[in-house]
């Protein structure tokens, strides 16, 4: 199934992006530059994370972000780094971030794109050396070029994403993204300072044996979800849950599994944020052959209403997601 212009494993991200740009006649290079800006910010965050323990970057700031969670120093740093990289890069007119209530205007009103980002996801894992990630989603603006961007640019819906991706800062750092065609992963080689194509055209298994949810919440899950989890245990499936969405998603994508974040008493609409957590991962999941749904619709079909809207999320191998959905009346 490899594309005629497919590049071999070992190709650098920069070269890959340039090659893809030439493959599309209409491409002007702005999206390519934007993807490179995100990769650069990712390298900077990666550096900060790797030395976090040394320079006392871990631990709380004593302030709360817009969702009322305690904000970690690294969250703040990642937010600043990404905003700066996207502002300086010049291809983005506005950003929304998990860390900020309102849209961030970059001042580049002539730019075509807007970006929704969770700069550093997995906040409870930051100061304990466990994998964390960045999630991003890119749209072409709908407001006229030259004008000030508005929330409308962000509330287009999941199908309108032009690209989505994540960076997982794990046992190695990997950037995975798609522009709506294949999904490709680039592992960071720190000695070269380059992301290198390591996972070309990722296709997820159709079925799997891993299930990932916060077991502490199970009593609050709705009946069909509890039934599904009981069936996983009956089949001696494997429970794996890191509590960093990117890390749990990446593992299940490669190995075959299902990720579940159902509604709970504390988060009746689900915990995860639609625009910069669910949409981008759902976009990647579908392109890699997985499904991403709530109990009643596909994540990408959800109509966005507000910037920090939440959703429940069931995502992973299509056979597993279908088995779960069958249990809902
Ligand atoms: P965060 O944006 O505050 O980091 O929260 C999102 C995280 C996801 O990475 C993870 O999947 C989920 O929250 C874990 O939640 P819980 O601790 O409730 O299991
Ligand atoms: Mg998050």
TrEMBL record:
Pathway listed for it is: Carbohydrate biosynthesis; Calvin cycle
Q: Fructose-1-6-bisphosphatase class 1 C-terminal domain: which residues?
A: 207-324
| Residues binding Mg(2+) 1, per UniProt | 98, 118, 120
Gene3D superfamilies per the UniProt record, alphabetical = 3.40.190.80, Fructose-1,6-Bisphosphatase, subunit A, domain 1
Q: Which reaction is the catalytic activity of this chain?
A: beta-D-fructose 1,6-bisphosphate + H2O = beta-D-fructose 6-phosphate + phosphate
Q: Which InterPro entries does the entry link to? A: FBPase_C_dom, FBPase_class-1, FBPase_N, FBPtase, Fructose_bisphosphatase_AS
Q: Which principal EC class is assigned to this enzyme? A: hydrolase
User: Could you say which EC number(s) this protein's record lists?
Assistant: 3.1.3.11
- What's this protein's family per the entry? Belongs to the FBPase class 1 family.
PANTHER family of this UniProt entry?
FRUCTOSE-1,6-BISPHOSPHATASE-RELATED, SEDOHEPTULOSE-1,7-BISPHOSPHATASE, CHLOROPLASTIC
Per UniProt, subunit arrangement is:
Homotetramer.
Q: What is this protein called?
A: Fructose-1,6-bisphosphatase class 1
What taxonomic ancestry is recorded? Answer: Bacteria, Pseudomonadati, Bacteroidota, Cytophagia, Cytophagales
């Amino acid at each position: 199934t490899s594309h005629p212009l497919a590049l071999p494993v070992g190709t650098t991200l920069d070269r890959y992006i340039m090659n893809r740009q030439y493959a599309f006649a209409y491409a002007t290079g702005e999206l390519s530059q934007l993807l490179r800006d995100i990769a650069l910010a990712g390298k900077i965050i990666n550096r900060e994370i790797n030395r976090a323990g040394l320079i006392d970057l871990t631990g709380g700031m004593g302030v709360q972000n817009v969702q009322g969670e305690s904000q970690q120093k690294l969250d703040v740093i990642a937010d600043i780094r990404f905003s700066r990289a996207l502002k300086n890069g010049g291809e983005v007119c506005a950003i929304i971030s998990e860390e900020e209530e309102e849209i961030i205007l970059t001042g580049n009103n002539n730019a075509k794109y807007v970006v929704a980002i969770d700069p550093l996801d997995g906040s409870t894992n930051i100061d304990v050396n466990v994998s964390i990630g960045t999630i991003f989603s890119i749209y072409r603006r709908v407001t006229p070029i030259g004008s000030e961007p508005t929330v409308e640019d962000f509330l287009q819906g999941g199908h309108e994403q032009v690209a989505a991706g994540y960076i997982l800062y794990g046992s190695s750092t990997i950037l995975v993204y798609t522009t709506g065609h294949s999904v490709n992963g680039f592992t960071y080689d720190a000695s070269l300072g380059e992301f290198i194509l390591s996972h070309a055209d990722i296709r997820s298994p159709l079925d799997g044996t891993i299930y990932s949810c916060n077991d502490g919440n199970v009593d609050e899950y709705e009946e069909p979800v509890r039934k599904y989890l009981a069936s996983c245990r009956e089949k001696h499936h494997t429970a794996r849950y890191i509590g960093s969405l990117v890390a749990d998603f990446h593992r299940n994508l490669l190995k075959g599994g299902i990720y579940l974040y159902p509604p709970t008493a504390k988060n009746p609409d689900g915990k995860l944020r639609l625009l910069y957590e669910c949409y981008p991962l759902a976009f990647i999941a579908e392109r890699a052959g997985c499904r991403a749904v709530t109990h009643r619709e596909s994540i990408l079909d959800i109509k966005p209403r507000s910037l920090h809207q939440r959703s429940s999320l069931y995502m992973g191998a299509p056979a597993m997601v279908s088995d779960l959905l069958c249990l809902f009346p």
